[in-house]
Amino acid sequence: MQALLLLRQSKLKGTLNNKGLLLNDKDLISIGTGKDAFYQSAGKDEFIQFEIHAQNNLKYKWSFGFEPTSDILPLKVEHVLDFDEFTNLENLSLFNNHFQYLTAEHYGPQKLYPKSELEVKQNRNIGTKGEYSVHYLSVFGQSEKIKFANLLHPKAPSNNLLHQTTAWLSEISPGTKLVIEDVKGVDLLKLGIQFESQTGFTNEFSPINVGFGILYVLPVIVSLLKAEPGALLFIENPESHLHPKGQSAIGRLMALTAHNGVQIFCESHSDHIVNSARVSVKANEINNKNLAIYYFDRSITDDEHKTRMTEIFVDHKGELSDYPIGLLDEWSNLLMHLI
């Protein structure tokens, strides 16, 4: 994810096609200087190369040199044929507004929530921490309709974004209802949580007095439900603060969203996220060719410190081509101690 985020922030800040790769930016990511980007034994002749394969056989390639103390890596080779082709980068979701990045640290439960006219109304974005999710629901919750039938939750009273968000949120916390209102005199929003009971709904609870995971997962649900075909989503650790059933529900929602032509990069440590995606394949909710799993682990036996990547294929029954140590095996490991 960091590799692609570096390209995006360099393009948005205007350094990608002339000055080089921007390593630090408060809006996306900051990884330090050149010595942090390269491996520990890098020399002056080393370089980092990025290559993007897009639709219509378009390829874009950049190479950046090693500057150990600089936060901009100098451009060495630009593999874009001409200026017109470079402007075509705007057609890639990585470089336009059809992009959403959610960091591992979401905007947790708050008494009041911020607004952003730029991010929400103009960019249709909810912020890298999901801090504008409540504002997005306030502006578009009633008017924006869910475009895909496979995402419509059967318990929602309508197909608008707010009702659908609430219904999917109820998969994590049953009977949850969101109540959003403007705070007069300040540029903030108040969010109330109600719970369904035998006689209707409870009084409103403050977000800080309900389960942490309910509001922590809200940005994930909103980003998935509002995504359009061709959109690109980066989601880190969507399972955080969720019980197993909630993790499985989010994994299934991601699979259903990906079925509609939305490309999702998800970093996860959750067996339930992986297994729910596999179940969606077997249930024909997503084609197995639209699901890829990459397992990363750190080599401790090689001479050089490096990361190993295992590409795992999924067949039409949801079976995996490989089960490396550390993937989906902890339950069995613990069960063996109980037998």
Structure description:
It is a single chain. 27% of the residues lie in helices and 22% in strands. By secondary structure, it is α+β, with helices and mostly antiparallel strands. Strands 1-4-3-2 form a four-stranded antiparallel beta sheet, covered by helices on one side. Strands 6, 7, 8 and 9 form a four-stranded antiparallel beta sheet that branches. Strands 5-10-11 form a three-stranded parallel beta sheet, covered by helices on one side. The longest helix is centred in the last third of the chain and has 15 residues. It starts with a helix and ends with a helix.
**Nearest-angstrom radius of gyration?**
22 Å
Count of the domains:
2
Please tell me the CATH architecture of the largest domain by its name: 3-Layer(aba) Sandwich
Beta-strand content estimate: 15-25%
User: Which sequence of SSEs, written as H and E, runs from N to C?
Assistant: HEHEEEHEEHHHEEEHHEHEHEEH
**Low-pLDDT segments:** 79-84
Rounded to the nearest angstrom, the distance between the terminal CA atoms is 40 Å
Structural class: alpha+beta
